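Running co-folding for zinc ion.
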Amino acid sequence: MYFDPNLANISARKIEGEKIMAKIRVLIAKPGLDGHDRGALVISQALRDRGMEVIYTGLRQSPVQIAQAAIQEDVDVVGVSSLSGAHNTLFPKIIEELKKRGAEDIPVIGGGVIPAEDIPFLIDSGIKKVFTSGASTDALANYIEQLIDSNQTSITPKKIAHIGIAVKQIDSVLSFYTDNLGLELEGIEDIPDEHVKAAFLKIGDSRLELLEPLDSASPIQQFLDKKGEGIHHIALEVDDIHGRVAQLKQEGVPLINDQPKQGAHNSQIAFIHPKAAGRVLFELCEKDEAGDV
Ligand code: ZN
């Protein structure tokens, strides 16, 4: 009998997903005066497609009406969208109205047309997260799932694990890092699989990694030929790298490694394609036990 492992994976995920998402109730609300709800309707449908129960308030709801609906409908999360530019007044007002009714534990997520410079103010006012207009509905759905289901690991990276710096020769630049900057050299090792020699310099809980090519097949050599010495990549430490990579793939983010691979010191790593991030190469890594990454 023919057995397709990909199909098996998809249905396993779906079953697991349905179990988790049966619980999630979302109120999608449009406060204020703008008369466009295409975006809100698209989001409502996308969340329904992911198995959530979505209640849409309709246009031009007041913060009081939205808070009341959230409580009456007993939702897990409120998504508010504004295109009118009044988000700085309306979003905090919704938080306030929820608080007045003892429902401040219902998280509120904002979206619509929100200038980046307004986001810190909205977060300060109690909005849990703000999605900008370029965000995918999958990213929003993934965020809601991890927000509501405490069994899911956080998608937020834990820290900068290291910054990789391409150098022609470790020996000729090392004294700047150790003597002038005063960083501690933890070790130097050859990583033949990656065709690099790496020097690990400790800085707080993070590291700088000086990367020297071991041979002409090294990606670091190709980088040096193209761009010269300089910052090569930024590595972010994550929990559950397999889940994270699968999620990014689903969100349409281009990846260099669509499966995590073995990195230095027993870590699992995967690179995101630089075209996803304004030509910056990001590495995700998950460390094993107490090992470094
Ligand atoms: Zn790295």
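Result summary
The CA atoms of residues 260 and 270 lie 5 Å apart.
The mean pLDDT is 88.
Job closed.
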